[in-house]
Write a structure and sequence with these properties.
The chain is α/β, with parallel strands linked by helices and 180 residues long. 40% of the residues lie in helices and 21% in strands. A hairpin with a 2-residue loop joins strand 1 and strand 2. The longest helix is centred in the last third of the chain and has 19 residues. It is globular and about 45 Å long. Bound molecules: adenosine-5'-diphosphate.
Length: 180
């Protein structure tokens, strides 16, 4: 599914984020940038060891929740990896929405700062961190739509959803948000 926000394309696809031919892909990292399972494991495996070496060297203190840091992308087709730290879902009253939306905004800012015209996001926090998929879809898409309306770039924002359930949830949320 694809919609235009002004001159920008917002696209949802089902697939594997490590395969995306875009300027930057986003990793759902933890605050120690220590590596993990899920999308983080897949990205580090596909990128090779230089990714972890660079993360350790440049960000020994890790990255706070709601923020993101940039590295090169090793063997991946992308130019950069943005390591974003999403919130752990604690029931919804622990600033989860604000922190999740902050992750997406920070990555879009990093895209602009690094001259990226295209960026691919996974569904941050919806795996091990337990954020309910339908809420994550609404909150993350709203943050991206607001950013694109305000800044008019990057040109392409793609959500790469892992599996049919996630893809369906994001499609439903995007339809609702566009009808508002
Ligand atoms: P978090 O700790 O932020 O919840 P996870 O990696 O556990 O991060 O999960 C985030 C989302 O990424 C989940 O919806 C998971 O299904 C998805 N995911 C896992 N592997 C990939 C992949 N290769 N490409 C895209 N999404 C993936």
């Amino acid at each position: 599914m694809k919609v235009m926000i002004g001159d920008c394309c917002l696209e949802l696809v089902q697939g594997d984020i490590t395969k995306q031919q875009v300027d930057a892909i986003v990793n759902a990292a933890n605050s120690r940038l220590a590596g993990g399972g899920g999308v983080d494991g897949a990205i580090h495996r596909a990128a090779g060891p230089t990714l972890m070496e660079e993360t350790r060297r440049r960000y020994p203190d890790g990255c706070p929740t709601g923020d993101a840091v940039v590295t090169s992308a090793g063997n991946l087709p992308a130019k950069y990896v943005f390591h974003a730290v999403g919130p752990v879902w604690r029931g919804g009253n622990a600033r989860e929405k604000e922190l999740l939306q902050s992750c997406y905004r920070r990555c879009l800012e990093l895209a602009i700062e690094n001259g990226c015209e295209s960026i691919a996001f996974p569904a941050i926090s919806t795996g091990a961190y337990g954020y309910p998929m339908d809420l994550a879809a609404e909150h993350s898409l709203q943050a991206v739509i607001d950013f694109l309306r305000e800044h008019g770039k990057p040109k392409l924002v793609r959500f790469v959803l892992f599996g049919e359930g996630a893809y369906g949830a994001y499609c439903r949320a995007l339809e609702e948000l566009m009808a508002r």
